[in-house]
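Researcher: Please generate the 3D structure of the following complex. Treat every line as part of one assembly.
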Amino acid sequence: MTQLNQSGWKPEMKALSPSGEGGYVETFTGNRALMLEEPLIFEIGGRETCGVDFVDLPLPLRGEGRGEGAGKPSQADTPLSQPSPLKERGLERATPIGLPGLSEPETIRHYTRLSRQNYAIDLGLFPLGSCTMKHNPRLNEKVARMAGFADVHPLAPHETVQGALAVIHELAHWLVTLTGMKAVAMSPKAGAHGELCGVLAIKAALQARGENRPVILVPESAHGTNPATAAFAGFRVESIPATAEGRVDVEALKAKLGPDVAGVMITNPNTCGLFERDLKTISDAVHAAGGYVYCDGANFNAIVGRVRPGDLGVDAMHINLHKTFSTPHGGGGPGSGPVVLSEALAPFAPLPFVVKRGEEFVLIEEETAGEHHGQSFGRMTAFHGQMGMFTRALAYILSHGADGLRQVAEDAVLNANYILRSLDDVLDAPFGGSGPCMHEALFTDDNLAEGFSTLDIAKGLIDEGYHPMTVYFPLVVHGAMLVEPTETESKATLDQFIGALRSVANRARQGDLALKSAPHFAPRRRLDETLAARKPVLVWKEEGAGD
Amino acid sequence: MRYLPLTPADRQSMLATIGAASIDDLFVDVPADARLSGPIAGLPNHASEMAVERHFSALARQNMAASHHPFFLGAGAYKHHVPATVDHIIQRGEFLTAYTPYQPEIAQGTLQMLFEFQTQVARLFGCDVANASMYDGSTACYEAISMAGRVTKRHKALLSSGLHPHYVSVAKTMAHFTGDTLETATPALDGTDMAHLLDAVDGETACVVVQYPDILGRVEDLGPIAAKCHEKGALLVAVVTEPVALGLFKSPGEMGADIVVGEGQSLGVGLQFGGPYVGLFACKEKFVRQMPGRLCGQTVDASGKRGFVLTLSTREQHIRREKATSNICTNAGLCALAFSIHMTLLGERGLRTLAEVNHANAVAAAERLARVPGVSLATRTFFNEFTLNLPKEARPVVRALADKGVLGGVSLGRLYPGAAALANGLVVAVTEVVTPEDIETLATALEEVLA
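Model: Done. Output below.
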């Protein structure tokens, strides 16, 4: 029988006390057990290394003539039906690109090691307010990869892609139904692109009326994309203040309405996590003044299946499929931002879109637009939108069904309120007194010890094994912490998170200096962002390759 | 419901903690007449994984997948073989289910990958710097035009007739609303409009936009137009919709382009019926503060270790709001990762070989197809895509070929509806996935359809 305790460690020895900076022993490699350092591909790859085999080269590339471009020698009077070789035109690449290559095992290891330096929903609660980091169902990944969707060309003849067009049409139907709107533009590539779509539709509608209204009103609690989008589309942005209870100041908004106002952009539920209960009143006032209502639908997940924005007088709203409908965030994209439109704006929707004629699905592109859709404001992107996100979002909708979607909104709101009421004794909840929140709970850095801020709480949460909440947004409160748990977290997970945030908040209130240097246990300590911006290093350069 | 962990008992206990009698109490701020009383009309209740999968399988079977047929479509989206490694890695949850790396201490994986991606793109395009990606090539193209306006303080852009018509349409949509002036033209089968562009650049031109290779597959030296632009104080924007071409061809940056944008779909991403794709955006270093989109930069952490962060965000909407360089927020992170992994597997030698195989296949196909009676080759210098002039309208020919199980190309009639001079044009893309048998099948089918 082998020795049971080969290490020789005995309980009475306790843990050996660590040494070195940060409380750990310096290692030769810089690794710390499962926390593995990884160099750049440029530092480990080679010019000759290749992780792809080309063993069945076509005839012209075997033996003689390799790299000569076209296989046949050219003649000065080459007829037009004969291709001419590249070198003749001096276009062939003469200098190396400088791309490192890795073999397959090296590639797998490089990216696997990098992946382990990331936090992700799959690892734990990811409570970024307004970002809706919910579980990404794996069925959706499987569906999106079916060859009939993933391996289909966007310009294939319509007759050969009826099933793909059917998916777009089916998703469009449910988006329109869930929002109570008239139509939907499917092509916008992400939320901000959807905002642009809605704002351009408003501009097109005004142009059709022969009116030039240069102003868009945006509440100060809005996402930065709202004013940026309005400005990008050529509008002047005017800000609307919030009331003390965190909602749009209706009277201030009404006072700004007039013949120069094209419309308003309102987020509902808003970025303080509150439902804009006066939205219908606002819509009516805006419409009476000749303007349009754009709703930022980033937070639609709080009300899906329970409230239809169309019933609140909204003219356009983008839906982030990567938020409400669970398509993966992918480390920053791709997103997808279909825009639902009211009857007033539907005629101005961008091209292309799918219609059903009898049993056949048809993609309306430029060529037919002139006949029937002359008011369309045009094309926003090549091809027709984020198909890979459409399949995933539709799978999500069908999986949940009518009962499940309603439960999604209810559980998202329940989870957020549970966090709000479990922590409002240690963290300042600025609008906690004005009633329940929707899908996200807002706190501020009021009540912390001198010199301690939201950032310290965020970094402390990292050491507790969580991704921090959204910080310093919205701008309407000081040191905002916006916590959105989503509906896919269990009560046990929430309870542990509440305990962790309570602990970190108490440390910040007591002035625990260790919090100022957190995180201590992440792959990196706090990073010098000032240095990064002052002397930008945006690409890798060989040492000694100049500046 | 398999995605919702709360039990009825959990809900009751949580409501008690909150001090609410029922879930409806949490929705009190929704006006009563705006609350839906029942479930969404027409939507069935929740479905099993198996049932949903069956629904999609049935729809997927109604589409002709590229891998299942002789396949020759391009025109801005290309079918390449994507190594299995790529899809494996992008499905790792740490990449797939991460967010924008706003907390760099726990997002070094995404950040380092973006830094590597930026370097790969900058080198491929022959530029100093690249950003962390845009939505796609078409929106990147408009952003480049917009950026050229900011740099030059001028508002006229000349778009080459060889620029992808969808890219032109996107730019037109934006210009219509911003008031910028765009000069555009329809391509001709008998030559590019480079001579015209050289003449047309003047002191009011913000930029000239050329595609390389262009929509008909033609490749042309960008050196003269770059020099002319610089002489007039304008920028040259080059658009690359098939980055594999740069394994064999000089990069636009080497030839003097100031901003190079492109569609990165052909490496790692796949066809996906048009999206999501990945926009590539690179430029000279001196313009970096006018760039749109996210940028990843190198720095150090508190213990002196190298690390990466998102940087120069004072250009961006979440800081600058209405004064931002663009309204873009999301990039195409996961597609950028797919691009970067595929590029890493290829490396310098692999990309060169891949480009050579593409070109050789395309030359073989062009030679064979030009022997089909009545068909002539309209593109002389090309990479992996060329235009055929058919003896009749190409659109119905494409449909007839599809009936024979061959996806034979993109008709210019689809891309340029109403342009009679182009109606007989067929754009044919030939990549490494095309076999000699595929070429023969297309040629034979084309002979039959044209007979």
